[in-house]
What we know:
By secondary structure, the protein is mostly beta strands. Helices cover 10% and strands 45% of the residues. The N terminus and C terminus are likely disordered.
Amino acid sequence: MRREVSVACLMLLLFALEAPLFAHAQTPTLSSVDLGTVPRGVAVDSSTGYVYTLLFLNGTTLALDPQTLATAAKIPTPSPYAVAVDSTTGDVYVSQGQGASISVIDGSTNSLSTTINGTGTSYALAVDEPDNLILCADPSDGALWLVSGATDAVVARIPIGSTSALAVDPSLHEAFAGNVSSGATSGTIEVVNTTSMTLVRTVDIPIPPGRFAVDPAAHLLFVTSAGAQSNGTNFLAIDDRTFQTVYSLFLGGPNQMAMASPHLFVSDVSMNRLYEIDESNGTAVMNSTGGSGVSFTGITSMAFDAQSGMLFITENDVTSLIVLTTGSNSTSTSSSSSTSSSSTSSAVTSNTISSSGSATLALAVPAVSSVAAAFLGLLYLRARRARTSPDPRPPSRA
Length: 398
């Protein structure tokens, strides 16, 4: 019996030591880049690593160097509201909240190249890179505007209702726009075929859609609720091919999302928290209120760069761009060439991310694994010693 227990312990020990998933996990860190005024939106060019953030009060879009996060360029964009990047062409699109237009920035020079008029007041932008289309959600007009990236002209207007929930699955050539019901207790997903540029389907959902995010590889559409829900659900993961719910969650007050498979980040405005969700099953692998000097209060936009493993965050009344370095990246540095940081006086301060109250970091699992492995190792050695040591008891008499 002791021999069987020893073998079992050894097998568990080897399993624990062979688990590479958590072997090199890193503790996330927070940084803040002072921009001088409150940034409103943020987007990342996944090809170059350049970060683009909007300064609404200054009427400016900043291009930040991917290596240093120093300001590489200041582009005039009156009343900028939403920003999206086509990483294939390098073009950056900035909607003008008061101008019914979109400013186009040439990412190769980080300068304004043209202005597209007639796009309404676009409060959300998305890019279909294979079709070279820019999608603009205009809640004031209840319309989705489609703009050709090749001609920089409006090519279609599709009535969809009042929404700022917008995402696209380029692999399906489909865009998804949200529509809130009259009682704001439920809503619909309006499905637009980006090839035919027509509305092809309307799908009922049990929550009023606030924000959308899509993982094209997994064909998952993520939906946060636009209002408080009494049914215990305010976050949905939906198969964007069948529109069946894969799982549903209650996350407090989910709002903004950032997606770069397999990373899904969700802000919780009611609890001032930031979650990282395992998109395959809905498990929270990070749940944090921030760290000393940086808190997740009033997040207005987020963008994740899979190359650097950095999440960029803007917040209400905060004049800094917040940077969460997750330690999970596909390459250690951006492929873009760096620019000297002497071109800006923006200060970068860093600290280690911490949990607060009931907030926990599941990324601390490596320590648990090490303790478990050590414990199993002690059990194995004890069992082995018991087998090899002589029995101190006298032999029994017949």
